[in-house]
Amino acid sequence: MVVLKKIRASTLMETLVATVLIVVVFMIASMILNNLFSNTVKNNTRGVEAHLSELNYLYLNDKLSLPYYDDYKQWEISIVSDKNSTQNIILFKAENSSTNQNILKETIDY
């Protein structure tokens, strides 16, 4: 016959405390991840930058006349000519009023 050793088990209170600690750690981790993902989505400007590059291509190939104003999703896009003393600079500007973000690209017109 096999003699069984008595194993010391944890009490109900220890189990509840450990469960609460694990839940608190997971809640804090999920709030941090949620904040990171929402900031990543909020600050993503790839779409509008691609649209500005497309407009730059259209301008360089004489398919776009200046001044140009457009709305792209939540962005207000303006393309204007800024005559400098020696060069003609084309300003591509995108503004997002909800997040107060601005994107500015310049092209030198020859």
Write the layout of secondary structure elements.
Blueprint: H1 12-42, H2 46-60, E1 68-72, E2 75-83, E3 88-96, E4 101-109
Antiparallel strand pairs: 1-2, 2-3, 3-4
Overview of the structural elements:
The protein is of the alpha+beta class and 110 residues long. The chain is 42% helix and 29% strand. It contains two helices and four strands. Strands 1-2-3-4 form a four-stranded antiparallel beta sheet, covered by helices on one side. It starts with 11 loop residues before the first helix and ends with a strand. 5% of the residues are buried. The model has no long low-confidence stretch (mean pLDDT 86).
Short description:
The protein has 2 helices and 4 strands; from the N terminus they run H-H-E-E-E-E. It is rod-shaped and about 100 Å long. It has helices at 12-42, 46-60, and strands at residues 68-72, 75-83, 88-96, 101-109.
